[in-house]
Write the C-alpha coordinates for this entry.
Amino acid sequence: MTIADIRSQTAAIIPAYQDEKHIGDIVRRTRERLDHVLVVDDGSSDRTAQRAREAGAEVIVHDENRGKGEAIKSGLGYWLAVAPKAFGGGELCREITWMSLLDSDGQHLPEEIDRFLGAAASATQPTFLIGNRMANVTGMPFIRRVVNRYMSIQISHLCRQEIPDTQCGFRMLDRQLVPELLSGGTRFEYETEVLIIASRRGYRIESVPITTVYSDQVSKIHPMRDALRFLKLMWRYRKT
Protein backbone atom coordinates (compact mmCIF):
# COMPACT_ATOMS: atom_id res chain seq x y z
CA MET A 1 0.00 0.00 0.00
CA THR A 2 1.35 3.43 -0.92
CA ILE A 3 1.66 6.48 1.31
CA ALA A 4 -1.09 8.15 -0.74
CA ASP A 5 -3.42 5.21 -0.06
CA ILE A 6 -2.75 5.34 3.67
CA ARG A 7 -3.15 9.12 3.75
CA SER A 8 -6.60 8.82 2.18
CA GLN A 9 -7.62 6.30 4.85
CA THR A 10 -6.23 8.13 7.89
CA ALA A 11 -8.15 10.40 10.26
CA ALA A 12 -6.72 12.62 12.98
CA ILE A 13 -7.80 12.84 16.62
CA ILE A 14 -6.72 15.88 18.64
CA PRO A 15 -7.70 15.82 22.34
CA ALA A 16 -7.83 19.39 23.63
CA TYR A 17 -8.39 21.24 26.89
CA GLN A 18 -8.15 25.00 27.32
CA ASP A 19 -6.11 25.36 24.11
CA GLU A 20 -7.84 28.17 22.24
CA LYS A 21 -4.44 29.79 21.63
CA HIS A 22 -3.00 26.92 19.57
CA ILE A 23 -5.85 24.73 18.35
CA GLY A 24 -6.80 26.69 15.23
CA ASP A 25 -3.25 26.61 13.87
CA ILE A 26 -2.82 22.93 14.72
CA VAL A 27 -6.09 22.02 12.99
CA ARG A 28 -5.28 24.00 9.84
CA ARG A 29 -1.83 22.43 9.53
CA THR A 30 -3.22 18.95 10.20
CA ARG A 31 -5.86 19.42 7.50
CA GLU A 32 -3.06 20.12 5.04
CA ARG A 33 -1.99 16.52 5.64
CA LEU A 34 -5.29 14.71 6.29
CA ASP A 35 -8.83 15.28 5.04
CA HIS A 36 -10.52 14.26 8.28
CA VAL A 37 -9.64 15.96 11.55
CA LEU A 38 -11.54 15.56 14.81
CA VAL A 39 -11.00 17.68 17.91
CA VAL A 40 -12.31 16.38 21.22
CA ASP A 41 -12.80 19.35 23.55
CA ASP A 42 -12.56 17.88 27.02
CA GLY A 43 -14.76 20.35 28.89
CA SER A 44 -12.88 23.56 28.13
CA SER A 45 -14.26 26.84 29.44
CA ASP A 46 -12.50 28.90 26.76
CA ARG A 47 -13.07 29.02 22.99
CA THR A 48 -11.21 25.81 22.13
CA ALA A 49 -14.22 24.23 20.38
CA GLN A 50 -15.08 27.43 18.50
CA ARG A 51 -11.54 27.90 17.23
CA ALA A 52 -11.36 24.24 16.14
CA ARG A 53 -14.61 24.54 14.14
CA GLU A 54 -13.47 27.78 12.53
CA ALA A 55 -10.32 26.00 11.37
CA GLY A 56 -12.36 23.22 9.75
CA ALA A 57 -12.31 20.38 12.29
CA GLU A 58 -15.17 18.19 13.32
CA VAL A 59 -15.67 18.69 17.05
CA ILE A 60 -16.92 16.63 20.00
CA VAL A 61 -17.43 18.54 23.25
CA HIS A 62 -17.44 16.85 26.66
CA ASP A 63 -19.79 18.57 29.09
CA GLU A 64 -17.08 18.39 31.76
CA ASN A 65 -13.39 17.61 32.00
CA ARG A 66 -13.05 13.82 31.96
CA GLY A 67 -9.33 13.44 31.30
CA LYS A 68 -7.12 12.95 28.27
CA GLY A 69 -7.75 9.21 28.20
CA GLU A 70 -11.50 9.74 27.89
CA ALA A 71 -10.98 12.37 25.19
CA ILE A 72 -8.88 9.95 23.15
CA LYS A 73 -11.43 7.17 23.60
CA SER A 74 -14.21 9.49 22.42
CA GLY A 75 -12.21 10.20 19.28
CA LEU A 76 -11.36 6.56 18.63
CA GLY A 77 -14.97 5.52 19.11
CA TYR A 78 -16.18 8.30 16.80
CA TRP A 79 -14.00 7.28 13.87
CA LEU A 80 -14.65 3.60 14.48
CA ALA A 81 -18.40 4.26 14.23
CA VAL A 82 -18.41 6.60 11.22
CA ALA A 83 -15.57 5.02 9.26
CA PRO A 84 -17.75 3.51 6.49
CA LYS A 85 -19.52 6.87 6.01
CA ALA A 86 -16.60 9.23 6.28
CA PHE A 87 -15.80 9.28 2.57
CA GLY A 88 -19.37 9.75 1.39
CA GLY A 89 -20.42 6.14 0.93
CA GLY A 90 -21.20 4.61 -2.42
CA GLU A 91 -18.80 2.79 -4.67
CA LEU A 92 -15.90 5.10 -3.74
CA CYS A 93 -16.35 4.61 -0.01
CA ARG A 94 -13.03 3.84 1.69
CA GLU A 95 -12.89 3.02 5.37
CA ILE A 96 -10.66 4.80 7.83
CA THR A 97 -8.00 2.21 8.58
CA TRP A 98 -5.52 4.35 10.53
CA MET A 99 -6.02 6.95 13.25
CA SER A 100 -3.44 9.64 13.98
CA LEU A 101 -3.20 11.11 17.49
CA LEU A 102 -1.49 14.42 18.23
CA ASP A 103 -1.65 17.03 20.98
CA SER A 104 -3.38 20.38 20.69
CA ASP A 105 -0.76 22.61 22.32
CA GLY A 106 1.83 22.81 19.55
CA GLN A 107 4.18 20.20 21.02
CA HIS A 108 3.74 18.03 17.91
CA LEU A 109 4.36 19.26 14.38
CA PRO A 110 1.45 18.24 12.11
CA GLU A 111 3.86 18.25 9.17
CA GLU A 112 5.53 15.19 10.71
CA ILE A 113 2.37 13.14 10.18
CA ASP A 114 4.06 12.31 6.87
CA ARG A 115 6.73 10.37 8.78
CA PHE A 116 4.03 8.19 10.35
CA LEU A 117 2.37 7.61 6.99
CA GLY A 118 5.68 6.43 5.58
CA ALA A 119 6.23 4.06 8.50
CA ALA A 120 2.70 2.68 8.12
CA ALA A 121 3.25 2.10 4.41
CA SER A 122 6.32 -0.03 5.10
CA ALA A 123 4.87 -2.00 8.03
CA THR A 124 4.82 -5.76 7.43
CA GLN A 125 3.10 -6.83 10.67
CA PRO A 126 0.48 -5.37 13.06
CA THR A 127 2.11 -2.14 14.16
CA PHE A 128 1.48 0.66 16.66
CA LEU A 129 3.45 3.77 15.72
CA ILE A 130 4.71 6.20 18.37
CA GLY A 131 6.85 9.31 18.14
CA ASN A 132 10.37 9.32 19.53
CA ARG A 133 11.88 12.62 20.74
CA MET A 134 14.77 11.04 22.64
CA ALA A 135 17.26 10.85 19.77
CA ASN A 136 17.64 14.62 20.02
CA VAL A 137 16.58 16.03 23.37
CA THR A 138 17.85 19.55 22.78
CA GLY A 139 15.20 21.85 24.19
CA MET A 140 13.57 19.22 26.38
CA PRO A 141 13.56 20.29 30.05
CA PHE A 142 16.06 18.24 32.06
CA ILE A 143 13.52 16.83 34.53
CA ARG A 144 11.26 15.66 31.69
CA ARG A 145 14.22 14.03 30.00
CA VAL A 146 15.07 12.07 33.15
CA VAL A 147 11.46 11.08 33.85
CA ASN A 148 10.85 10.05 30.22
CA ARG A 149 13.91 7.81 30.15
CA TYR A 150 13.06 6.17 33.48
CA MET A 151 9.42 5.53 32.61
CA SER A 152 10.31 4.30 29.13
CA ILE A 153 12.67 1.70 30.60
CA GLN A 154 10.00 0.48 33.01
CA ILE A 155 7.22 0.33 30.42
CA SER A 156 9.48 -1.27 27.79
CA HIS A 157 10.21 -4.06 30.24
CA LEU A 158 6.49 -4.58 30.82
CA CYS A 159 5.77 -4.53 27.08
CA ARG A 160 8.74 -6.83 26.36
CA GLN A 161 9.96 -4.60 23.56
CA GLU A 162 12.03 -1.44 23.44
CA ILE A 163 10.05 1.82 23.34
CA PRO A 164 12.45 4.79 23.66
CA ASP A 165 9.78 7.45 24.32
CA THR A 166 6.69 5.94 25.91
CA GLN A 167 5.46 9.36 27.06
CA CYS A 168 5.05 10.77 23.57
CA GLY A 169 1.42 11.43 22.61
CA PHE A 170 2.11 11.68 18.86
CA ARG A 171 0.91 8.30 17.61
CA MET A 172 -0.76 6.38 14.80
CA LEU A 173 -2.63 3.11 15.13
CA ASP A 174 -4.53 0.57 13.08
CA ARG A 175 -8.31 0.69 13.58
CA GLN A 176 -8.35 -3.10 14.13
CA LEU A 177 -6.81 -2.42 17.54
CA VAL A 178 -9.33 0.29 18.51
CA PRO A 179 -12.02 -1.93 20.08
CA GLU A 180 -9.39 -3.15 22.55
CA LEU A 181 -8.63 0.44 23.57
CA LEU A 182 -12.10 1.75 24.43
CA SER A 183 -11.82 0.87 28.12
CA GLY A 184 -9.09 1.41 30.69
CA GLY A 185 -7.73 4.57 32.29
CA THR A 186 -9.34 7.97 31.95
CA ARG A 187 -6.41 10.37 32.26
CA PHE A 188 -2.75 10.46 31.31
CA GLU A 189 -2.10 6.88 32.45
CA TYR A 190 -4.27 5.74 29.55
CA GLU A 191 -1.47 6.53 27.09
CA THR A 192 0.76 4.06 28.92
CA GLU A 193 -1.95 1.43 29.17
CA VAL A 194 -2.60 1.34 25.42
CA LEU A 195 1.06 0.46 24.81
CA ILE A 196 0.75 -2.51 27.15
CA ILE A 197 -2.53 -3.62 25.57
CA ALA A 198 -1.12 -3.34 22.04
CA SER A 199 2.00 -5.30 23.03
CA ARG A 200 -0.07 -8.08 24.57
CA ARG A 201 -2.17 -8.26 21.40
CA GLY A 202 0.96 -8.99 19.38
CA TYR A 203 1.56 -5.51 17.96
CA ARG A 204 5.06 -4.24 17.37
CA ILE A 205 5.55 -0.78 18.87
CA GLU A 206 7.57 1.04 16.21
CA SER A 207 9.18 4.39 16.96
CA VAL A 208 9.06 7.28 14.50
CA PRO A 209 11.67 10.06 14.98
CA ILE A 210 10.01 13.42 15.59
CA THR A 211 11.09 16.91 16.62
CA THR A 212 11.22 17.97 20.26
CA VAL A 213 9.11 21.12 20.64
CA TYR A 214 8.68 23.07 23.87
CA SER A 215 7.45 26.65 23.79
CA ASP A 216 4.87 28.36 26.00
CA GLN A 217 2.66 25.37 26.80
CA VAL A 218 1.97 24.56 30.43
CA SER A 219 1.81 20.89 31.36
CA LYS A 220 -1.63 19.68 32.41
CA ILE A 221 -0.15 16.74 34.31
CA HIS A 222 -0.68 16.78 38.09
CA PRO A 223 2.65 15.34 39.34
CA MET A 224 1.46 13.58 42.50
CA ARG A 225 -1.97 12.46 41.34
CA ASP A 226 -0.88 11.24 37.92
CA ALA A 227 2.26 9.58 39.29
CA LEU A 228 0.07 7.60 41.68
CA ARG A 229 -2.19 6.52 38.81
CA PHE A 230 0.87 5.42 36.85
CA LEU A 231 2.22 3.35 39.75
CA LYS A 232 -1.15 1.68 40.27
CA LEU A 233 -1.32 0.85 36.58
CA MET A 234 2.17 -0.66 36.55
CA TRP A 235 1.44 -2.71 39.66
CA ARG A 236 -1.79 -4.07 38.16
CA TYR A 237 -0.17 -5.18 34.91
CA ARG A 238 2.89 -6.64 36.62
CA LYS A 239 0.59 -8.92 38.57
CA THR A 240 -1.06 -10.13 35.35
Summary: Strands lie at 10-16, 36-41, 58-61, 98-101, 127-132, 171-174, 204-209. Helices lie at 3-8, 23-31, 48-54, 68-82, 113-122, 142-159, 189-200, 223-239. The CA atoms of residues 169 and 177 lie 17 Å apart.
